[in-house]
Amino acid sequence: MPDIAPLSAAERAGALADLTAWTYDEERRALCRKLVLPDFAAAMGLMMQIAVHADRADHHPEWSNVYNRLDIWLTTHDAGGVSHRDVALAQVIDRCVASA
Amino acid sequence: MPDIAPLSAAERAGALADLTAWTYDEERRALCRKLVLPDFAAAMGLMMQIAVHADRADHHPEWSNVYNRLDIWLTTHDAGGVSHRDVALAQVIDRCVASA
Prior knowledge:
The structure is a homodimer. By secondary structure, chain A is an alpha+beta fold. The relative contact order of chain A is 0.25. Chain A has helices spanning 9-18, 40-56, 84-99; strands at residues 23-25, 30-36, 62-66, 69-74. Chain A has three helices and four strands, in the order H-E-E-H-E-E-H. Helices cover 43% and strands 21% of the residues of chain A. Strand 3 of chain A pairs antiparallel with strand 3 of chain B.
């Protein structure tokens, strides 16, 4: 299944060049974005918006929330690292953030 | 404000005797409950249910989700540890879990 193959380092760098809000977390082998929202309700609203898209794609984030902060990691366990599915979900999340 | 005073170790132990699903996380100075739900949608639903109660009480959890797992920590930063507000939120969370 090509969609769960891990990206090469070069492919990952290419993807991150377009995902300017994201970094690569070496330890978690994940794309990472850390967000600060206006308040808790805004953080919950964004999470729910992302959750609907993620569940429809059957690819789910790892995320932590404290009040208005939301930290998100995207990795594909079956691929042992970042795959195209993570890049696609990062793009969806960026659209959710932009429309929030 | 007595509601944000930290509990003594004895008071905390007394609270935990009733909160049987919770443990005390020394490092985070927090009450901790780790949940496994049927799936991602169930985890999101429970989070939203808890979120509404937490925001109304203006006391918010620290939590992480990965697919069907939800890890929750309750601490009161202004108190430097567990306060009565955390015990009250833990009780609310237990009721949410029981009714999910």
